[in-house]
């Protein structure tokens, strides 16, 4: 990762590290994970920032830590898998969830830095990485806690809470259920009332291939439903290895993937107000903007796909893809139960040539995105699940693949661990930093903050193409 504002800040000093066990221990058991759970077992982090407030200036760090700890103990009694560990099944080499009551990890830390000195909290800063606990588990997932958190007091009296959870444990919507439950149970400066909490359902039964209720689809033939997103990924990798892609990094005919590695990416957040989004819609759809049905997600996904592909200079004849997560909780037959806490998403995929993408109107691209969304059915979910049943590798970074993740329906800043909403909630560096995250703007509820990882040499070009028609 290219250096982003880390060198001049005071150190963060850890003052306490404790294991947090469930208040009420549950019987140990194994929960079999679905293939959707096993895609990324690593910890995914977000940092909540709460600026100094008179409401809690007289509270000690120790009392806040104690509230968070007791709240987490209570929460883990219901969300008991979060106190467990991943375990490797020796018979098939697949990860499952061992509900062992080993506990989560909670860390207390202090820094003399002031939150205001961090500047725009929406812009990624490598200093943020020091505000989250990173356990050293030596690559052995059976030693990795599934939930970790660090509360840090700043010199100004403000606080941050950096939270990591294994993506094998929760997906985004489940995390958005777990964290409010913890905030509610911690009850810092508030009474336990007025918050709707969902009772979690941890068993993955409906998504397990060995479940007798799951019908295996034929692998080929006219009646077969294909996991289009995975088919497209294989085609992109094959195209890259054959040298049919773009740029100076390509080794034509070498049989090697071009090196567009993650280490040099710069994370950049673009602020898109509700007015800017409406302006884009008006300019690209013209007189039809009032009659053409289009969500903000569909419009911005089309726009970022066009801008990123053009900025990276992908060859016109190359296949390019847009892929995005689709929640399947109501797509399966029967629907997953309310409160389902596992991973319940698949990737939808739209594909064109770079030339078709550049020449196509936003309306054409939005129609392609809608078509990809409509393709997600129960049969698609089964086919996707089956396609993941084989050995999994790391997805190589590809200029031809644009990935989008929509967080706008999960406004994490509204989770009030302290008094009121967070000033900002920042995702930390993820295993796939080139993903474009759409997040609700904490000031403008119709606005979107889009964070994306870009190569430094393409940042200016992307900014130009992306902000065109936004002003």
TrEMBL record:
InterPro entries: CAT-like_dom_sf (IPR023213), Plant_Fungal_Acyltransferase (IPR050317)
Pfam family, one: Transferase
UniProt GO molecular function: acyltransferase activity, transferring groups other than amino-acyl groups
Similarity-based family: Belongs to the plant acyltransferase family.
Record-given protein name: Omega-hydroxypalmitate O-feruloyl transferase
Organism: Gossypium barbadense (Sea Island cotton)
């Amino acid at each position: 990762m290219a250096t982003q504002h880390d060198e001049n800040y005071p150190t963060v000093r850890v003052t306490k590290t404790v294991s947090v066990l469930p208040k009420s221990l549950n019987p140990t058991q194994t929960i079999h994970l679905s293939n959707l759970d096993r895609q990324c077992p690593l910890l995914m982090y977000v940092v909540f920032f709460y600026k100094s407030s008179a409401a809690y200036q007289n509270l000690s760090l120790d009392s806040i830590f104690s509230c968070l700890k007791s709240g987490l103990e209570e929460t883990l009694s219901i969300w008991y898998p979060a106190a467990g560990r991943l375990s490797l099944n020796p018979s098939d080499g697949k990860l499952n969830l061992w509900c062992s009551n080993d506990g989560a990890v909670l860390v207390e830390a202090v820094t003399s830095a002031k939150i205001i000195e961090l500047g725009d909290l929406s812009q990624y800063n490598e200093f943020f990485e020091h505000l989250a606990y990173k356990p050293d588990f030596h690559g052995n997932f059976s030693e990795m806690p599934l939930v970790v958190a660090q509360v840090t007091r700043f010199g100004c009296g403000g606080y941050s809470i950096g939270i990591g959870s294994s993506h094998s444990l929760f997906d985004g919507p489940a995390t958005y259920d777990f964290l409010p439950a913890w905030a509610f149970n911690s009850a810092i400066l508030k009474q336990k009332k007025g918050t709707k909490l969902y009772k979690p359902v941890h068993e993955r039964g409906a998504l397990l291939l060995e479940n007798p209720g799951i019908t295996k689809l034929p692998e080929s033939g006219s009646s077969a439903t294909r996991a289009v997103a995975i088919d497209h990924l294989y085609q992109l990798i094959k195209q890259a290895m054959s040298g049919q892609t773009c740029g100076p990094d390509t080794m034509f005919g070498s049989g090697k993937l071009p090196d567009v590695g993650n280490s040099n990416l710069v994370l950049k957040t673009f602020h898109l107000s509700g007015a800017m989004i409406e302006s884009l819609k008006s300019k690209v759809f013209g007189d039809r903007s009032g009659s053409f049905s289009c969500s903000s997600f569909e419009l911005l996904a089309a726009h970022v796909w066009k801008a990123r592909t053009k900025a990276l200079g992908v060859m016109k004849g190359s296949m390019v893809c847009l892929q995005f997560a689709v929640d399947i909780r109501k797509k399966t037959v029967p629907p997953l139960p309310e409160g389902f806490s596992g991973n319940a998403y698949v990737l939808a995929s739209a594909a064109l040539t770079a030339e078709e993408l550049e020449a196509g109107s936003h309306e054409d691209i939005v129609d392609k995105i809608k078509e990809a969304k409509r393709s997600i059915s129960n049969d698609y979910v089964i086919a996707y699940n089956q396609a993941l049943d084989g050995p999994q590798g790391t997805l190589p970074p590809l200029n031809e693949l644009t990935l989008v993740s929509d967080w706008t329906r999960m406004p994490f800043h509204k989770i009030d661990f302290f008094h009121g909403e967070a000033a900002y909630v920042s995702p930390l560096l993820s295993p796939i930093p080139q993903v474009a995250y759409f997040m609700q703007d904490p000031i403008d509820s119709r606005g979107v903050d889009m964070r994306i990882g870009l190569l430094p040499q393409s940042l200016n070009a992307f900014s130009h193409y992306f902000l065109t028609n936004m002003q």
